[in-house]
Amino acid sequence: MPPLTVLDRKGLTGKLSVVLVLLGISVFINYVDRGNLSIAAPMLKDELGISPARLGVLLSAFFWTYACLQPISGWLVDRLNVNWVIAGGFFLWSAATAGTGIVHAFSTLLVVRLILGIGESVAYPSYSKIIALHFPEEHRGLANSVISAGLALGPGFGMLTGGMLMARVGWRPFFIVLGLLSLLWLVPWIKWMPEARDAIHLDTSGAPSLAEFLRMRSAWGTCVGLFCGNYVNYFLITWLPYYLVRERHFSMDNMAKIGGTAYLLAACFSTLSGWLSDRWIMAGATPTRVRKTFAGGGIALAGTFIGLSVVSGPVLGVATLLLGVIFFGVSISNVWAITQTLAGPQAAGRWTGFQNFVGNLAGVVGPALTGLVLDRTGHFYWAFAILTAVAFTGTASWFFLVGPVEQVAWHKRPRAIAVPHRG
Fold first, then answer.
1. Among residues 287, 410, 246, which one has the least CA distance to residue 344?
2. What is the rounded average pLDDT for all residues in the chain?
3. What is the three-class DSSP state of 129?
4. Mean pLDDT of 246-274
5. CA 311 – CA 384 distance, rounded (Å)
């Protein structure tokens, strides 16, 4: 039976459109679940009596397992049925979210965050595998922008709705109900998942080894680019609520409105950017020019405006912060399209897993580093300055380390040949 795929160059099949929407919803839930601890941070800090440095450890703990398991997750989605891999991961991370609401100690909360990271570690390798299998180049901008919109809407919902609900009912009931309700996503996914197409049934004779990845400049370029973009993203997810409440003295409700608005704008501009990038390619521009312009240019402008927000007054500070988050949305719309094109279907899971491992070390380093800087300086100025420098590094990586955005011919790449010993 032929695989579920894109039918023509005008649009997507009805079923594939449903699959894409479900993937977008899963990313939305993914980022609500991973980011809500930062929304609860001011209340949680007071209830558990923990320092900013220990809070930074809690906020980064998710990424210890999430990042370290990326290579294994990438291997799994290339070898097993990707549809069931993501379903299993989704179940585990939703259960961990519900469990967050019932723990009462720093140590047990730390364990639950580690479990959350295990469950979510399969998500992005699975998304890349599915998109690389079923979407051609001229549709990958839109497909990835739906994923990116979920990435932005999740934290936005968490800050806006989650912040207001926590202020009214407390953070514990919110986590329990959210985790249990999230499990309902599995019902339509099991019904509408794309045709099972296990990686073991594909021709993997030209699939690359880890050693081949490590020798490729473009692989390291995508890793550094993602690390820098993730540093910006995880700074916003983990520390923006705390910054707005404690440094800028906004109420929980106003913090929720500002953060929610920022991520809503990011989602809108990410979707628009994905559509525009596809149209630009259809008009004859090369994927190299288009994808790098959005990924590299967007993160540079994001770092610039977010950096300016900390030295501005309240009104201008919020305005520049919103602009920075908008350009972050512009950037992320094309990041994974670059990876999927370079890797191709046969290597999308492994490349994404390796790239996401390196990229999500930003989630380990960033929140903890910000907490340490805040402990030492008592303010956020240096934390924002570091963010801007990291963003500019990401721009340089996308433009100069990543080569032409075209599929690697793995079967044509030179490989080491074992020569039998004679003697």
1. 410
2. 85
3. helix
4. 87
5. 9
Better-predicted residue by pLDDT, 130 or 187 = 187
Residues 206, 345: contact at Cβ < 8 Å?
no
Q: What angle do CA 236, 397, 151 make, to 5 degrees?
A: 30
- For the cut 60, the answer to whether the pLDDT of residue 201 exceeds it is no
Mean pLDDT score, 271-299:
94
The span from the CA of 317 to the CA of 307, in Å, is: 10
Q: By percentage, how much of the chain surpasses pLDDT 70?
A: 91
Q: What residues contact residue 29 under an 8 Å CB cut-off, 6+ apart?
A: 90, 94, 154, 182, 185
- Tell how far CA 235 is from the center of its chain: 13
Q: Is the pLDDT of residue 280 over 50?
A: yes
Domain boundaries, the chain: 14-189+211-408
Choose among 393, 18, 47: nearest CA to 231: 393
- CA torsion angle for 117, 176, 148, 199 (degrees, to 10)? 50
pLDDT at 412: 65
CA distance 267 to 146: 8
Return the CATH fold of 14-189+211-408: Growth Hormone; Chain: A; (1.20.1250)
pTM over 0.70, yes/no: yes
Among all chains, which residue has been given the structure tokens 């806006």? 160
The rounded distance, in Å, linking the Cα atoms of 173 and 162 is 11
Pull the structure tokens for residue 260: 């929610």
